[in-house]
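Notes, Module 5: Reading structure tokens.

Key idea: the token line is not a picture. It is a compressed description, and you learn to read it the same way you learned to read a sequence, by spotting repeated patterns. We will look at two proteins. The first is printed below with its tokens.
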Amino acid sequence: MALGGGTYITKNKSLPGVYINFISNATATTGLSDRGVVAMGIATGWGPSGEIFDIDMGDFQKDSLKILGWDYTAEKVKGLRDLFKNCLTLHAYRLDGGGQQASCSLGTAKYAGSRGNDIKVVVVETADSTFKVSTYVGNTQVDIQEVTTAAELLNNDFIEFDKTVTLTAVAGENLTGGTDMESSATTHQTFLNLCESYSDINVIAYTGSDDAIASLYAAWTIRMRDEVGIKLQTVLYNSAKNNVAVINVFNSPDLVWWVAGKEAAAKVNTSTTNDIYDGEFDFVVDYTQKELEAAIKAGKYVIHRVGNEKRVLLDINSFVTTTETQGELFKDNQTIRIIDSIATSIANVFTSKYLGNVANNPDGRTSLWADVIAIYDELYALGAIEEFDSEEVIVSAGDDKGSVVITSTITAVNAMSKLYMETVVA
């Protein structure tokens, strides 16, 4: 007999007793996610090959030498410093990976690449017949160990030691033979294929000027948006693709780094219009009014001079040919962030809460309706959309028993960009 604690699915028990189900109060989960994730191919001559590895803003600032082979202040990572002005997480892939590892008689570089040639090992024999083995990257000492034999050496972040050698004093032995692979369209395709398993990417970027490779990134991003449902944008240089998926940087390929981080981190309730460029690259910013107007009409993302500052002209993408279903608003990246957030949030709620779990009946559809309203309420509270009528959000049964259809109307809020003022002077 169930004397308390028995549970039921239907009320059809034959034995006397108490059957109790404890369930949580239904709550709406909005699923709005943070932004700030970029995917990019990099070439630093150091790091894992053939795989994506993550770098957070804090990791880059503290452990740049270990992760990338270069100190945070090095010219080699100048672009990454621009990126991490705003980017929170980078899904990085070595475009120059797959080369040879540098080596010497004492060991082999941890990673393939030309940076391994800047590693040096110094061995000093002490009065106690031990050996102090130091590892340098350039002029920076990154490790020191005191051992009696090579078998006691521990591999560090830069070199894997040969534990069989006989240690003798060495003033400094450089590793040699490290090489980088030259990137190609195939390299970029491999990177894009790996990115397909990452659903958190806000922006993917290519800093080069090869139109064929830029077109590859654009086509991949459009496919991810339209067919896979991963809502992201790509930042490219001088690539007029006439699509909301592509942000077309005008000034310089160097600017792609900063724009990628800026756009990835931009919130649904903010625009990058008039934001100050605070990066390290120099590029042309002095344009005439006619040139700026032409750039806007062509869907170009431009940095221009305002006094002594460099500022974003308009937060727009490369979409220029409007249609009945995609009007002027779709040129604005803030609009794209808002509708992408809605699409992603509703998809996340549906797949995590409803897919395969909730019956497609009036009660189930009412629950889904409430979750959609909760998403819109949060966007309204953030100032991303204007006040909406919940009666205009309709969740109905689809053409087959397992499908539902949501129809709704929203008004996106965009940041002010134009002021028209008429003043009567008496």
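Here is the second protein, with the sequence above and the tokens below, as before.
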Amino acid sequence: MDVWGPYPVASYSGMRYFALFVDEASRFSTLFLMKERTDVYAKFKFYYERVKTQLKIRMKELRCDNAKELLVLGEKIKRNYGMECSLTVKHTPEQNGVAERMIRTIILRTRCLLEHFGLPKQMWAEAAVTAAYCVNILPNKRNGMQVPYAVWFRVTPA
């Protein structure tokens, strides 16, 4: 997982950041918009409960970088959830390459959506959510051309 932002312009709902959780096996990405970087723990709690109830999966590890708010998140995760939080070495984004690359993909697609449709910059949040959705429903080479959504939810695409 990783946190991206701040976007230079707040969205219409006041968002400036997003937290991105990426499942390494399926490459399914879950994007949460945030007003502040410190909102990340609340987003993790929501994500953790969603995975536990919808998929009946117990998360074992969360990998994130050494950003200040993620250090606090790591301590809370170990204490409250009994799972590992692997922190990368400072200034080595390649150790969290899956999340970093997915953020790049989503940001590039977000910019394309804004530019192509002539949308105001305040719509960056909606464009980012749409970009993440598109990534999840398109086949992924890493998964043998399977759709991340189908792998994550264990369904056959129609």
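Summary for the second protein:
- The mean pLDDT is 92.
- Residues 97-116 form the longest helix (20 residues).
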